[in-house]
Amino acid sequence: MSFTEDLNFLQSLVDAHQEPFCLVATDYHIVAANQRYADAYAGSDRNAIIGKKCHQVSHKSDKPCEAHEECPLRQVFATGQAHQFVHRHYDQFGEPDYVTVRGNPIFDANGMVVLMGENITSISHGQDICLDAERMVSGCCPSFMRVLDNLVTVAETEAPVLILGETGTGKEMAARFIHDKSRRANKEFVVVDCTQFTDDRFASDLFGHIRGAFTGAMENKLGLYEIADRGTLVLDEIGELSPAIQVRLLRVLETGTFRRLGETRERRADVRLVCATNRDLAEMVRSGTFRADLYHRINCMQVELPPLRHRLNDLAELSTFFLERVGHRAGMSDATHEVLLRYEFPGNIRELRNILERAAMLAQGARIEPRHLPDDITTGRPSCHANPVHASEASVACPEPELDEARHLKEVLARHRCNRRLAALELGISERTLYRKLKAQEAGQ
Predict the structure, then answer these.
(1) What is the SS3 assignment for 296?
(2) What is the per-residue pLDDT for 139?
(3) Which range, of 27-41, 203-217, 337-351, 406-420, averages the lowest pLDDT?
(4) What residues have CB less than 8 Å from 145, skipping those under 6 apart?
(5) Cα 303 to Cα 299: distance, rounded to the nearest angstrom
(6) Who contacts 25 (Cβ-Cβ below 8 Å, separation ≥6)?
(7) What are 107's strand-pairing partners?
(8) Whole-Å CA distances, 101 to 73, 77, 117, 224, 376
(9) How far apart are CA 264 and CA 177, in angstroms?
(10) What is the phi-psi region of residue 212: left when phi exceeds 0, alpha when psi lies from -120 to 50, beta otherwise?
(11) What's the whole-model pTM score?
């Protein structure tokens, strides 16, 4: 029996999956899908899915996802092994949904891959990975998608995590995302600002104290470490800890035990540790200002958040969200967008949000023009410099080679039948910028 001879048999296998699942042929056509997949992408109508290409259903695009994301189907058929990636899909209402896509090979009797089983797990709907002060930032730039993939992988483990990123890139939001997607999600999430610690107060704040431990200790007090028991403890800006505090923290991490100040009894707490910093800890280890043994203890799994200047392909989407959040519907001019694209954003996402909120107030409901932006942005001379976690000379839209950009521009133009206005809208740039990029590519050929 070939894989196409008994569709009822295939359908019964597909229906056994609890999450959205489909079978896809090498030409991207969906052979079978379960009801959960149909509910997610076609409004319960399974007949509207069968026979369509997977990227038409999940990405609402006539182009395969490999144009801008890593394609599990191509990898599965090429290697005969399972592959997993993070994608941004669009549900039946056209709303973005970040998902984990796992492709598994389906073999025939001769050991040839004839189908891919695609299992979809929603990481979080678009509104949950959002852009405000409480939630994760979103986008579709490859650098952001890679970070999201790393965060999902890290969340499934219990290992300590070190989050690196400049000020304003969303380190605490990333830590919250790890917690919310872990098995500890229903337990405490405790954030500790390490810049507030002093050598005298460290033990009391982190481990607590008993009544009478020191002058003014009128009652027993739980420390933040104990409060985080069975949950997640975030040590924000861990690079600011003094050498004395580093020693005391290392002992707790190595033994798993602690004492409340003034107490002889040893206690234990089951804590998932997440550390965050905008400092270059590796360089601090080399210079002797951060302990190497503590660094290796907290750096089991590392996630590096890209600065905004490495995610400029997401600038249009980010700007639209921030402006809509403050009720500004007129948007910004092409000239304003061009100015923002040339700016380095040392304050990253947080700085962009503040810039746009200020500009929206000055514009008073009209379209935002360059004159509504601060002088240091229009002149291209920021008042503060980028953090050393990411070198300023690496300032690019996304870490993609020029050949990838050239191919992407051609694909977008072809999709819109060489209509530069529509292509520029999809790319989030002005038509003038698109023309300039195309001319530069022609000159370089």
Answers:
(1) helix
(2) 63
(3) 406-420
(4) 69, 86, 87, 88
(5) 10
(6) 31, 114, 115
(7) 113
(8) 10, 15, 10, 37, 43
(9) 37
(10) left
(11) 0.69
Enumerate residues 6+ apart whose C-beta is below 8 A from 140: 68, 88, 313, 314, 317
Identity (one letter) of the amino acid at 282? A
The structure tokens 């995302």 sit at 177
Give dist(CA 118, CA 17) in Å, integer. 11
Convert the pLDDT of each residue in 94-140 to its tens digit: 887 888 899 999 998 899 999 999 999 888 655 555 434 444 555 66
Q: What is the 3-state secondary structure (H, E, C) of 240-257?
A: HCCHHHHHHHHHHHHHCE
| CA 107/CA 383 separation, integer angstroms | 60
Pair of tokens at residue 46: 């399974």
What average pLDDT does range 341-358 have in this prediction? 90
pLDDT of residue 138: 59
* Contact partners, residue 189, CB within 8 Å, separation at least 6: 176, 179, 228, 231, 232, 234
215-224 contacts at long range (C-beta below 8 A, 24 or more positions apart): 217/261, 217/262, 220/260, 221/260, 223/258, 223/260, 224/190, 224/192
Contacts 24+ apart (CB under 8 A), 106-113: 106/3, 106/23, 107/80, 108/2, 108/3, 113/26, 113/76, 113/77, 113/80
Pairing between strand 83-90 and 96-107?
Answer: antiparallel
Neighbours of 440 (CB within 10 A): 11
428 has pLDDT over 60 = no
Q: Which domains does the chain have, with CATH numbers?
A: 7-125 (3.30.450.20), 147-304 (3.40.50.300), 310-385 (1.10.8.60), 401-445 (1.10.10)
Q: What is the pLDDT of residues 6-35, one digit of tens each?
A: 777 878 889 889 899 999 999 999 999 999
Find all residues with CB under 8 Å of 330, minimum gap 6, and list them.
Answer: 363, 365, 366, 367, 368
Q: How far apart are CA 392 and CA 382, in angstroms?
A: 12
